[in-house]
Design a protein that fits this description.
Helix content is about 40%, strand content about 15%. A five-stranded antiparallel β-sheet has the order 1-2-3-5-4, with helices on both faces. The protein is built from five helices and five strands. The protein has a single domain, classed as HIT-like (HIT family, subunit A, 2-Layer Sandwich), CATH 3.30.428.10. Helix 1 crosses helix 5. A hairpin with a 3-residue loop joins strand 1 and strand 2. The two termini are about 20 Å apart. By secondary structure, the chain is of the alpha+beta class.
Length: about 160
């Protein structure tokens, strides 16, 4: 998949950092390999050496500039034809308020009751973000800077 230039934030020899193409959530980033593999063990040492520092730099930029309550960094992709990539998902206080106020997601509470900790977990909030900010044709209104503003802010923070 070719990432449109306006969504690109930063690039190294082996990685491209961009805003997720179908996300209305400002700061939902994707860090994707420029090499055509979906397997970390197939990447050259130089690519692996870039990965850790780049994830750390991106986390620092997101946390210092956008101040989310939480930041999830994860890998889900396994579709053929897509190189290995990581999701960086900021969870802002207003996203959590939307989650808790949406009755459709209260069905998840029955599963949380079995847990010793109150509240929700990353899987539930990730599902909410995917459904509401990535898949919906009419996502909820955002609070704070727009996607375009966040891209500009992060380009500056990443030195791009």
């Amino acid at each position: 998949m070719q990432i449109p230039q306006p969504l690109q934030i930063s690039a190294t020899d082996f990685w491209l950092l961009s805003h997720r193409t179908d996300s209305a959530l400002p700061g939902y980033l994707m860090l994707g390999s420029k090499l055509p593999t979906n397997d970390l063990s197939e990447l050259p040492q130089e690519a692996l050496a870039e990965l850790g520092p780049l994830l750390a730099q991106t986390q620092k930029a997101l946390q210092s500039r956008l101040r989310p309550n939480r930041l999830y960094i994860s890998r889900y992709g396994h579709s053929p034809g897509h190189p290995i990539h990581f999701h960086l998902i900021p969870v802002y206080d207003w996203v959590e308020r939307l989650f808790w106020s949406d009755h459709r997601y209260r069905a998840l509470e029955q599963f949380a009751e079995a847990s010793s900790e109150p509240g929700t977990d990353g899987a539930e909030l990730t599902l909410f973000i995917w459904r509401e900010f990535c898949e919906r044709a009419d996502p909820p209104p955002i609070e704070g800077p727009s996607v375009a503003d966040v891209i500009a802010l992060l380009r500056q923070a990443m030195g791009s």
